[in-house]
Amino acid sequence: MPVCGDDVLAAAARIQPYVHRTPVLHSQRLDALLGVRAAFKCENFQRIGAFKARGAHNAVFSLSSEAAQRGVVTHSSGNHAAALCLAARHRGIAAHIVMPDNAPRAKVESVRRLGGHIQFCAPTLAAREAGAAAIVRDSGATLIHPYDDPRIIAGQGTAALELLDDAPELDAILAPVGGGGLMAGTAIAARHLKPDIRIVATEPAQADDAFRSWRSGARVTDAVPNTIADGLRTMLGAHNFTILRALLDDFVTVSEAGIVQAMRLVWEILKIVIEPSSAVPVAALLEHRERLGLAGQRVGIIVTGGNVDLDHLPWQP
Amino acid sequence: MPVCGDDVLAAAARIQPYVHRTPVLHSQRLDALLGVRAAFKCENFQRIGAFKARGAHNAVFSLSSEAAQRGVVTHSSGNHAAALCLAARHRGIAAHIVMPDNAPRAKVESVRRLGGHIQFCAPTLAAREAGAAAIVRDSGATLIHPYDDPRIIAGQGTAALELLDDAPELDAILAPVGGGGLMAGTAIAARHLKPDIRIVATEPAQADDAFRSWRSGARVTDAVPNTIADGLRTMLGAHNFTILRALLDDFVTVSEAGIVQAMRLVWEILKIVIEPSSAVPVAALLEHRERLGLAGQRVGIIVTGGNVDLDHLPWQP
């Protein structure tokens, strides 16, 4: 296994000074609607508004001083970029972010605000990879992959550690799968602390590469996702594939309508701003609670983040 | 004074089994934008989604068993009605809610869900008051005023008690004023725990009856409010007028544009769903921080609630 429980425990100690211990929220009214007793681990309240702060800090603070001095690089332009900039700033080193020249202004400003060095490139994956490779070659900076890296996986697993510390009686834990870093880390942490807990992955049916990979045993790398859950459009990483195959008890996919309904329910009843990706495990309870055998059970949900465009909410015309 | 610090302490003990101790949130990024060190007391996470649960439980659990058996009544149809229904259910007694027959469906359903007995009437204040008076006459139920009642004021003050318990170093405390129950309770609790804390009331300029009352010394009762902060459209109550005149250090009014900007900032950065009324103290920091002498200070803000219509957000066309 590329990552073990002790790696997650070590990550928790390493990142503790730099990230928030986020609260766990409950709602009797939401429980009644979902038919479970749900505990929401609110990573939307995490630094930079998403769980990605955990993995990035673990990766950056795992570097040797020598490697760290040469900086870090990524060509992911979303929450991972912001997280990497923050972690690099905390360590006092440079973060280089390769971004397509048509990147949304909000993402560019977020990286600038956090002190990242932006290098623009043509809006293709090849151009982004080439840009990052050139920085690595020229500066010796370390490329930090957004999800398929053992340090990232161990860092993301710390959210589940805290959740199980606050709610040790959980029967099951649910998270969404994009590249799989969060789900893999969650599975490792949960299985380590509580060997008999049920670990359930959730994914949009319209971005079900990880589900098909898990079911078939052959990793899907060429799907064309089409989901509102923009954080889950990436393909499952190789390390994460290995971990999910080994540790998951179940895996369900959900409809786009279910994601929107679940997102709105959480905003309306829990009064928190969550992104569509965070609504995927909630949609899984709405659509598959009985089949998953979770009715009446104590269920932990990792709320991934809250970075949404408030001008364009999915339930509005 | 109609209410003293010990009344708030007694209320806190009385309501503790029935209401949430809500979290206090902070954000470095929001602090940078507001120019203060802000602590947000999140009553949007309170039972029924608003601080009103506190006062209603204190009023209902202050009744003698004999009076309680005859039930409670209100003709307020918003958060106070929902709060009264919940408190009555917790005590095992009836709550009668007089509502106009054109009340929004969401409010009717909220009261039904909480087990309240609805009596519809014509959509005028006279009809509502007559309906409530008839219930009092026929059943002996106790009318619980939504804000101008010492039990309600003492209950609302418990939010500030908890805030100062979690953040004892605050230099100032801010809340919005509608009928004044929350602001009066907050002022009593804060002054009791921390005699030198600055107590600042905030109100929309387009619903400034309390501000004008406070400044002139003559209570304004006939204003025509026109603000997006729907929770603050009521006139200042008589008890609350007395308390605010005695205890406030300052009082500022804010623009409608400031309220919308502040509400959006809180959603975007703190990742919580708050109603426009809750944004009024935040708008006060945006518009009056320097004049209030709060730059760089530790400021507590009571976030009143999170019951909003997600289909109609004020920053959208």
UniProtKB/TrEMBL annotation, chains A, B:
Keyword Transport annotated: no
One GO MF term: serine racemase activity
Ranges where the Tryptophan synthase beta chain-like PALP domain occurs: 16-305
GO biological process: D-serine biosynthetic process
Pfam families with a match to the protein in the record: PALP
Gene3D superfamilies: 3.40.50.1100
Family per record: Belongs to the serine/threonine dehydratase family.
Protein name (Swiss-Prot/TrEMBL): Pyridoxal-phosphate dependent enzyme
Organism for this UniProt entry: Solimonas marina
